[in-house]
Amino acid sequence: MAAQDDELRESARNRGLKLVKSRRRKKGGDxxxxxxxxxxxxxLFGFGKTGLTARATEIEDYxxxxxxxxxxxxxxxxxxxxxxxxxxxxxxxxLKRLKIANLFAKLPAAKxxxxxxxxxxxxxxxxxxxVSDGQATPEDKPFVQEADEWVVVLQGSAxxxxxxxxxxxxxPGDHLLIPGGxxxxxxxxDPDGPTVWLAVHLG
Length: 203
Prior knowledge:
Structural class: alpha+beta
Largest sheet: 5 strands, antiparallel
Radius of gyration: 46 Å
Low-confidence stretches: none
């Protein structure tokens, strides 16, 4: 009971009130009952004609109710909290007019030298079309690039040799990855018509 009294007394003090507890043991009296006064001793709650009337739970309820009442009064002066605005939906990307192209349409003449046409360069990757017409790489001038390169033969025929490997014949649909820094030679391309390659430079 002493711990409960201390908690009630502290709670009342925090509200600027005083807790009063009866200790009279007169039969039919108010022993063990409580009351609350303000700081000047004015009776606020739990006082009757014959003494104190409130139980501990009633004191607790009163103090809680007073706290809620004070909070509501204080909240009246606060600006109303506006609901957070709903995020605007991300704008839909505008679909540009589709541009259709064909890898085999209007092939450039490549009899004199191979023709390299860049198709797209994005995110560190570059894709190009290569048109050959009977060319081969000179033995003393091998191809070599820093990044990996993936190539596929789309039309015609060719043969390729990578440093340290035998010559390999390529027909339409054949593809391979040429690691960066590796010397390589296109040893032949179709002498009877254009050979069309697709090359993807990775990085």
